[in-house]
Amino acid sequence: MSLTRRQVAVAALGAVPVAFAATGTAQAAPRRTRTLYIAGDSTAAQKYSDAAPETGWGMALPFFLRQDLAVANHAVNGRSSKSFVDEGRLDVILGAIRPGDFLLIQFGHNDEKTADPARFTEPWTTYQDYLRLYIDGARARGARPVLATSVERRKFDASGNAVPTHGDYPAAMRALATAEGVALLDIQALSLALWQKLGVEETKRYFNWTATEQDNTHFNPPGAIAVARLVAGELLHRRVLAPRDVRRLDAEIPESWITWPSSATA
Hints:
Layout: H1 5-14, E1 19-20, E2 26-27, E3 34-40, H2 57-60, E4 69-73, H3 81-86, H4 89-96, E5 102-106, H5 123-140, E6 144-148, H6 169-180, E7 183-185, H7 187-202, E8 207-209, E9 214-219, H8 221-237
Parallel strand pairs: 3-4, 3-5, 5-6, 6-7
Antiparallel strand pairs: 1-2, 8-9
Helix pairs in contact: 5-6
């Protein structure tokens, strides 16, 4: 289905670059030369006050990027590579993206939902076909596409080993990145290693565990900051960004820098 007028307006609002001062406080953005767009699902998406403390890693990514590189976070809860396209959300990005910009693409969590034809894709066929739409669309506009494998859920076996949950989707994305010559951020592998290092109990501090909810998919502020740090580090490591484009990769980021705007503005 296509986007409603309100959805387009929300997407446009989400595309307005936001700059962060050294204190993490949002300020009016100066004139931008480049923008990093995020197309993805709830693990990356902007969250609002009614969802706090749930936090998407895209909310923390600006803390690790220089102020002359804006982040336009178009990730939306519940979307797959297919439904994001079918709802017209990729069209919104492609209508705004410019030469020299970046399109960071992370899908997989909802592509796995076999019982939902609106979202399901098959890893080695339709998933790759939809991802090519993002790649080709960005390149046609002089922007650089970047693929990111899905961040891992919190799941451990009886022996305390972190367990992968995304089936063939990460492998299919890796293969596509190689075939298409696209930079790949292997966030699935990096996050799995991080959860393994932290262990069963410590990882609860990174996911949206509250008094009423035990959520092993979505993050709280520490988790979002940790994953955003992985993303920024990979953007540098894969030479998508230069050293001058990143900051604070080894610095502590205060949780208080995360803020959730009122849902009334969404």
